[in-house]
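To: structure subgroup
Subject: Chain for Friday's discussion

All,

I'm putting the inputs and outputs inline so they're searchable in the archive.
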Amino acid sequence: MTDPSPGGGDLTTIGTDSAAFERFYRRHVETISRFVARRVDDPHTAADLTAEVFLAVIDSAAGYRPDRGNEVAWLFGVARNVIAAEHRRATRLLRASGRVAGRRLLDADDIARIEERIDAESLARRTYQALSGLPERTRALLELVAVDGLSLVDAAGTLGISPVAARVRVHRARRAVRLALAQSESALV
C-alpha cells in the first residue's frame, strides 16, 4: 500500500501548505488527467475538470481519513464527485457559456496534448459504453478496480461500501459484462 501522505507529510495539510500541495499535485496530476480523459471527450472540459479536481482536493483535504483508504483511492473519489457534478451542470444551458469562456485560456499545444490523451483513451470510452447496462454504483466499482487499478478494498472505501459487498458486486458485474459482450459479438456475426 502506498504512503497515504504527500512526501511523508500529513495529507490533511495540503489545503494550507503550498509545498505539500505541490508535491501531491505533481505526484497525481497525470493519473487524474488520464482518469478524466477516459470519462469526457472534450479537451477543454478535460483540462477544466482536472483543475477542478485539485481545487476540490484543497477544499476537502482536512477531511481526509486514512482509515477509509489510501490517498489515491480518496483522490479518485474526489475526481468522481467532480466529474458527476460536471455532468449535472452540463445539462443546464447556463453552464455551456461558462465552458466556452474557459476555452480561450488554452493554447494550441495544450489542446493538442489533451486531444492526444483523449484519443489514447478512446478504447476505454468504448468499454464504458459497453458497461452502460450496469447500475451506476456497480459500474463505478468495476471501473475503479479494473480500469483505475485500485484494490477491491480501496475501491470499496472510495464508494463507501464493505469489501464483501464489493467482491459480490464485482463478480456479478463481470458475469453481466461477459454476457453482454458475448451477445453483442453474436449480433455482429
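Points worth raising on Friday:
The chain is about 70% helix and 0% strand.
The CA atoms of residues 83 and 178 lie 27 Å apart.

D.
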